[in-house]
Design a protein that fits this description.
This protein is an alpha/beta fold. The chain has one domain: Rhodanese-like domain (Oxidized Rhodanese, domain 1, 3-Layer(aba) Sandwich). The chain has four helices and five strands. It has helices at about 5-10, 25-30, 60-75, 85-90, and strands at about 5, 15-20, 35, 55, 80. The chain has a five-stranded parallel β-sheet. Strand 2 (about 15-20), helix 2 and strand 3 (about 35) form a beta-alpha-beta unit.
Amino acid sequence: MQSITVHQLREREGTPLIDVREVDEFAAGHVPGAVNLPMSTIGDHLDELPDGPFDVICQAGGRSARVVEALTARGHDATNVEGGTGEWIQAGFDVEK
């Protein structure tokens, strides 16, 4: 599985970011520019995924890792963000609400 750190994510440009946390978690604060497609409903929204490479984030990296494994098996070019939004916030990076 492809993975990047939150520090690498911060330096990336032009790669879409999918946040797979639930709607209330996303609303409480997320990485700027992230799009919310909750893990619990992502199967219903596969047509909304980017055509090219994209990154996947959750709170700590567990849910996003499972989503990346499943999407990669379906042929998507997905990368897991290790440490998730929790590590992003802990690093002092900006969040959107």
